Amino acid sequence: MTGTITVAGLGPGDEALVTPQVRQALDRATDVVGYIPYVARVAARPGLTLHPSDNRVELDRANHALTMAAEGRQVVIVSSGDPGVFAMASALFEALEAWQGPPPQIAILPGITAMLAAAARAGAPLGHDFCAINLSDNLKPWDLVEHRLRLAAQADFAMAFYNPRSASRPHQFARVLEILRQECGPDRLITFARAVTTPDEHLLTMTLAEATPEMADMRTVVLVGNAATRRVGDWVYTPRRAG
Amino acid sequence: MTGTITVAGLGPGDEALVTPQVRQALDRATDVVGYIPYVARVAARPGLTLHPSDNRVELDRANHALTMAAEGRQVVIVSSGDPGVFAMASALFEALEAWQGPPPQIAILPGITAMLAAAARAGAPLGHDFCAINLSDNLKPWDLVEHRLRLAAQADFAMAFYNPRSASRPHQFARVLEILRQECGPDRLITFARAVTTPDEHLLTMTLAEATPEMADMRTVVLVGNAATRRVGDWVYTPRRAG
After folding, report:
1. Would you write out chain A's pLDDT as a tens digit for each of its 243 residues?
2. Is residue A178 located within the same domain as residue A225?
3. Number of structural domains, chain A?
4. Nearest to A144 among B116, B235, B243 (CB)
């Protein structure tokens, strides 16, 4: 049997947000690889081998998937959210570029990415043009993050930030807030959306003036409105109209 | 019974991409409102009234939903893709802002938005920081579109364009391609993804030098890579690493 690799997005946490397409791929898999907490979301069954691995070993995991597919296995790589947004799809193609064997059959299955789940819980803060920025400097220089932030603010994009803050770089998110206050002013709305759609979900919206760095951690997606973003009742939304 | 409004994303077209959460909301609805082709995706059943409406009447539709919810109905507003991305969620909150009655219970249910479905079919072109821009000038001045495009290119975002081209403004997308060639150079990769996940699906990737305006229509999402976006086999991907 020809081996396959399917990169599947599990969505932000709630099982009711896993698409039937992803569910079907998991039902057909012989092997599931991924970061430990994501593999833990896949039910064990006879004929399925689970291969949980640690964080920051994305290329090793992709190569493991390529090796198993070459052996004729039906491999699913699981990501949380959408696999194409700061997740495993790019890592697989990076590994494929260096892969010496024949390429396996590959499919990427989209999922509900964290920023859109967070936006839905908050209202519609991304209802006009917006951007998504990974604030981790693991894979890019910090100067580039600052440069992008300023240009995004000058373009008046609404913004979504992934990986806003980790224990190893707590000062960087403070710097992000400082830049945003300079570029967008103190009254701009910001939403901290933690562990969206899970039992730990917590949303908090305020102005940039009121925001402090410790409001974000690695389970938080941060949404910043554009100049027109406002509240209606308990909701936050960005009007469709601009300029 | 208290009325409710649920704004639900149906995804890009394939029924296997409709989340169980959205399916359940549709099963419980007494009324479904939305643009004609989206309401056509909802199966008729006893106890459910379908209210299809024309395009560009988003506020009328939102007010209709508010009126029915005030009468105790369980209303679902359907959007294609994700309701928070250039769709009905913002329109509902705009209508709610002007609404005189008591506010109904509201829920926004995310869906697979077109750019992420298109990216998955192409590979992982949005695998690094990216932005989403609605190229229609119905709701914003064209100058703002051009300004945003240039800043997005200077920030080296990968880009997704919704509503790239309509019969009423065919020249504007030609101008977009011209600006992109100026800012990103002729070799930058661009993907035209039409009617993704439907029987009419058609994907085409090329360089900006090779792209022509008529490759896009209103059923197309256009994806533009960043400076590092490249091909591997038949796939297009943006590496996670930058700078």
Report:
1. 689 999 999 999 999 999 999 999 999 999 999 999 999 999 999 999 999 999 889 999 999 999 999 999 999 999 999 999 999 999 999 999 999 999 999 999 999 999 999 999 999 999 999 999 999 988 899 999 999 999 999 999 999 999 998 777 778 999 999 999 999 999 999 999 999 999 999 999 999 999 999 999 989 999 999 999 999 999 999 999 887
2. yes
3. 2
4. B243
Q: Å from B137 to nearest chain A CA?
A: 10
Same domain? For B107 and B160 the reply is no
Question: Which of A57, A131, A196 is the best mutation test for B, with the most CBs of B within 10 A?
Answer: A131
- Which residues 179-208 on chain A approach chain B with CB closer than 8 angstroms? none
CATH label of the domain that carries residue A218: 3.30.950.10
The answer to whether B56 faces chain A, any CB pair under 8 Å, is no
Angle at A224 between CA A219 and CA A227, to 5 degrees: 175
Nearest-CA neighbor of B158 among B194, B133, B136?
B133
The beta-carbon neighbor of A151 closest among B84, B124, B155 is B155
Same domain? B193 vs B219 = yes
Which residues does B166 contact at the CB level (< 8 Å), separation at least 6?
B136, B217, B218
Which of A94, A112, A130 terminates a domain? The answer is A112
Q: In which element (H, E) is residue A30 found?
A: none
Which residue range forms the structural domain that includes residue A204?
A: 115-237
CATH number at residue B18: 3.40.1010.10
Nearest CA in chain A to B140: A242
Helices A142-154 and B142-154, axial angle in degrees (round to 10): 170
Domain-located, residue A70: yes
The owner of tokens 């990427």 is A108
Distance from CA of A181 to the nearest CA of B (A): 19
